[in-house]
Design a protein that fits this description.
mainly alpha; about 150 residues; 6 helices; three-stranded antiparallel β-sheet; single chain
């Protein structure tokens, strides 16, 4: 059986996961800037931050959320890691060690986002979990591993 995570991988500590998340902000900021530019061009620049129409603002926010979700879902399902995770030698796998499927990756993204909205409570779960898994890892049956080879 070919698996993404083998016996040379260990559970990733929370600090390393958070460092990878911070690192992922850099490509995301670039994606958000490009997306906002395209959005403004597509709407003839009708988005005015000083006096935004709520539909335009909500539309831009939804598009930025979708771009963020696509970044994480594609990274997790195709490569097993985002740019930040690769820099910190982390990999995201299912409990059986295989790559994530799109549905699981999407669910994990939104659960992690929900966790961040509530002061990161789901992330702090990893500090008390024997396998160092976050709440969204537990729910989605995933684990973050540190590649040691």
């Amino acid at each position: 059986m070919n698996t993404v995570a083998d016996k040379t991988s260990t559970a990733a500590p929370l600090w390393r996961r958070l460092a990878a998340l911070v690192y992922d902000l850099f490509p995301l900021i670039a994606l958000w800037m490009i997306t906002a530019l395209i959005y403004l061009l597509a709407t003839d620049g009708r988005y005015d931050p000083a006096n935004p129409h709520w539909v335009g603002r909500l539309g831009l926010q939804l598009v930025l959320l979708a771009v963020t979700a696509v970044y994480f879902v594609i990274s997790w399902t195709r490569l097993g890691a985002t740019i930040g995770m690769r820099a910190w030698k982390l990999n995201l796998v299912r409990e059986d060690g295989k790559k994530l499927r799109t549905g699981s990756a999407l669910a994990r993204f939104f659960l992690a986002l929900l966790s961040l909205a509530f002061a990161g409570i789901g992330f702090w779960w990893a500090l008390f979990d024997a396998q160092k898994r976050t709440a969204h890892d537990r729910i989605c049956r995933t684990r973050m591993v540190r590649l040691t080879n």
